[in-house]
Amino acid sequence: MGVRVAGLRRVVISVVALALTGTALRAAAPGDDPVAGASTRLLRMPTVSGSHLAFAYASNIWIVERAGGTARRVTSFQGQASHPQLSPDGRQLAFSADYAGNADVYVVPVEGGEPTRLTWHPGADLVQGWTPDGGRVLFTSTRASAAPSPTPRFWTVPVAGGPETPLALPRGYQGKLSPDGKRIAYRMNTSWDEERRNYKGGQNKAIWIADLTTHDVVTPPWTGSKEMDPVWLGDTVYFLSDRDGVSNVWSFVPATKQLAQVTRFTDFDVKTLGAGGGVLTFEQGGAVHLFDPKAGKPAVVPIRVTGDFPWMMPHWEDVTARMTSLGLSPTGRRVVVEARGEIFTIPADKGDVRNLTASSGAAEREPAWSPDGKFVSYFSDASGEYRLVVEAQDGLTPPREIALDKPTRYYTPAWSPDSTKLLYTDTNLNVWVLDVVSGKAKVVGRDPWMVPSRTLAPSWSPDSRWVAFATRLDTMYRAIVVADADTGEQRQITDGLADAMYPVWDASGKYLWFLASTDLGLRSQWLDMTSYERLQTFGLYVAVLRKGEPSPVLPQSDEDAGVGSKVEPTPLTASTQPVTIDFDGLQQRVVAVPNVPERQYARLAAGVAGTVFYLEAPPLAERGGAPPTLGSTLRRYRVSERTSVGFATNVGDFAVSADGKKLVYRTPARPAPEGGGEATPPVLHLVDADGRVPDAGSGRLTATLRMELDPKAEFRQI
Question: Which of 153, 322, 436, 692 could tie 339 with a disulfide, CB 3.0–4.6 Å?
């Protein structure tokens, strides 16, 4: 099934998601574009014969006269069809399709009709070409290898039906047989990202030209570039290479060892090369091209694709499985989520699900609920750039749109406890504070190092004055920084000798909680593969903000005050009083929280006073192996209990209400198992945060999120 990921998944992304945009993104006018105005773009995997072109588009196979024109659909079903290959005589068309739920090899006359199935193995069989006599179809399959990383090899199957026969080569991913059938030009190994330009990693290999009798191998000169899709025209091998910075067509003559560049595009890469009928065909810039080596110049083929395309029509879509960001109303009466670019609120018990945005043509992201309960904020690109939108939580009044300076993508929004300011980060790793009334924003912090993980994770103090976040030092260790939201003045409060992150303020205003690790060193360089197997573990720490304030985790001792005496500890309570921070000596008031073993923790969040929640990653099944479950364990630490307890399992994301008394968590979606079955959508659970540990599965919200989807508007937004 590993090849299926590399093959049919590529078709799903490119042909369905991108090719459908071709219906909306046609060339404006013949004079403005090399493709005629009526031509359809993003036709994939072209193959050519003396009289026809065939290609994949919108998950199906189409065919057209070699000169172009209106294409005719060859397949028309709900699944995926890909890898078309016209036979040497041009009379038949082989392709891979999942008519029966699995990618198998089929053949059909070029006139159309019912395809004939040739393979039946549960693995993915991906068509590569034909034997020169047209009697057998060449395909790749992992059927002869085993998990966990099955590798493909070449097989042939008779067009008339019969058993499959492997080629002698032990591995093969892409390839074509020579016109005499004695040699094969091929790529040996698979690639996890066919579309990545100028990749120079270990998955790149030279094109191999193997003699099937002697097993001698010849390769074109190669210096680490990405080489793809080898095909034959006569005794010349043509292939795609990005050795000049853009993927172009190159040629190599094995007999003379002559290498030459054939095309010289400088804008878009050439895709999926095919050959037949004395010419080459390929996709470039969304158009199908033909290249006659005798003429020496490629020409665009004007092709028009028309059809009913029911998925292009406006319709109601269940987007429950697309839930991502989530938050809670101040007391947990409603949950707010993002799903497929829409913002929904979901009742805890009574009422209807509300779609606050209902806009297929815009992406709304990162919702947050104001602590006073009046507003929901989110970022929207309806104007063409992301802006902040503040909308009444019931959606009954027009929303307010706030244009932001230097617009980019925004993350981690959080309202100040007094509901007057909004805190968020951006693509450039800046920390912003925005005054909601004036709409003015200013930077109060940043992370100077751009690495794949975004861990600024800023949070508000209970009095709405201070902002805490984690920033990387030059050592790549993260330190906790506190900034004054009014003046922007910053103070680093951890010493930088440990990797500290996820700061959150205790609701009492007395403490700042955070996670810290003392074993980051071997993982500090994220692109160094020697760090991959090194697990980073964290402990829970608390900083006492004021001098003279006792530590919340002082050692306890049972003392007897005598009969009739009753001594009760003073409980911590939430406070909105000004938070006082004595920065002098603060690093000496950082305490490791006892009874919390160091593990792979993340995502710290504050509850009621003296309470924090955090995620613990599932253990690896074995060294370097995948975790047995997709979700993490949500843990709760309470000062009153002096211990950490498992609060919920299989958690993908969670949020705590502003009053700290409710918590919502989301289980991760599970893909359909490889052996068959259905995918499992994410599920929301709303539970009490300050009571006993909830029973497993309790508090489940059964709401269904549905949107009126206009695919054409959505494609324009994309």
Answer: 322
